[in-house]
Amino acid sequence: DIWKSWGDQNHPGVPEVKLPNVVFDSEILTLYVVDIKVELHQSHIHTNGHLTVYLPNEYILFAGDAVEDNIPVVTEFEEEDIQTHLDNLTKLSKLKIEKVFPCHCSLNKIQEGGFDKSIIQANIQYVQRLIEKTQDGSKMEDFEWFLGDYKKDINIWDPYRGIHNLNLQSMLKLYGTKSK
Questions:
Q1: Cβ atoms within 10 Å of 108's Cβ, excluding its own
Q2: pLDDT of residue 180
Q3: Packing angle between helix 118-136 and helix 159-175, nearest 10 degrees?
Q4: What pLDDT was estimated at residue 161?
């Protein structure tokens, strides 16, 4: 509903949820789809129990909601979750990746072959800046500053300004601020 309220009439929603019939406790589960090696990586990014799909022989990461264009959602997190979020993004950034396909991004970007792995670093930088600036109270209104060096590589999509404000509110609840 939030996407429709922000004008995204194309967000398909999920018509029917299918429960998993395979569970695993390790960080990585390796499967083969015919002769394609598929690794499912558990990560506490976006939500607990989130999975990313990595094709190590093709260097492709299907990131789901773990990596987003243009900013990640970090609402409803506890303080330790933020560090886990950053740690797991850092783990993903160390994989050999040539293409990243997040769930939320421009359809044109997908048709062009996805993102390079710098989008992962962009998400890391955003969360680090979010923590830093909510703690010191500066530049909080400057959405594009939070995007940092990567704003030229990502799409600044207007509804994410609202997500950014929700992220700021969440960080302020966790860390407070020293007003400048």
A1: 8
A2: 44
A3: 50
A4: 77
DSSP-H helix ranges across the chain = 2-5, 79-93, 107-111, 118-136, 143-147, 159-175
Phi and psi (nearest 5°) for 34? 55, -110
What region, left, alpha or beta, does residue 130 occupy, with left being phi > 0 and alpha being psi -120 to 50 degrees?
alpha
Nearest residue to 81 (alpha-carbon basis) of 52, 53, 46: 46
Token pair belonging to 169: 């509110």
C-alpha to C-alpha distance for 119 and 99, rounded to whole angstroms: 10
- Give the pLDDT confidence of 67-121 residue by residue, as tens digits: 888 788 887 677 678 888 899 999 999 999 999 999 877 778 888 999 999 999 9
**Contact assessment for residue 92 and residue 67, using Cβ atoms and an 8 Å cutoff:** yes
pLDDT for position 8: 56
